[in-house]
Amino acid sequence: MRARGLRNLAFLRRRMGSPAASHAPLIRSHAAVLELQGTGGTNGFRQRLFVARFAGLIFIQAMELILMRRLSLALGLLAACAATGASAETVNLTGTYRCIHMCRDGMLGAPTFVTQNGQAVSLTTETGEAYQAWPDWNAPYSRIWIDARGEGAVYSPDGMRIQFDDGRVWQRDIGPPSPVVFRRAPVVYSR
Hints:
There is one protein chain. The relative contact order is 0.08. The longest helix is centred in the middle third of the chain and has 43 residues. This protein folds into three domains: 35 residues, no CATH class; 36 residues; 78 residues, Beta Barrel (Lipocalin), CATH 2.40.128. It has three helices and ten strands, in the order H-H-E-E-H-E-E-E-E-E-E-E-E.
């Protein structure tokens, strides 16, 4: 079958009058089309097609990479904005505290008072000294700055402890626990 196809093609080429084509040997391509040897498959079309497809694949992958980077950046920014809004809630420090570590003049357990009005915080120490404090510019949601003393303090996220830069620690005084009252059920007598 193949030999008959080759003879028919050779006959057609001679009849068409192509002298160069009649002397070139015939080869079979991947698409079962007979081509002249030395033309590289329709003059290198397959090689050019391969290079074009390969370049197109690289271009598509690069575009997908850029799209994924932009998408991940947008999601990261969205998450950062959402987290910032949640962490921006300030703690209400107003209340009575007790000095529990490195108290002045040995006044361990002495009451101290904190009053917060907006961002302004008023502190009364265990010795009775009053100071004004503001949120620290470096960490406004976890530190306060006492300008008159030139020191700062870190407070816990729940507002239960305040630790000053000089080592003093105040703990919120929540008072003694409420007494537990036991009630007995009434006795019902039936006859």
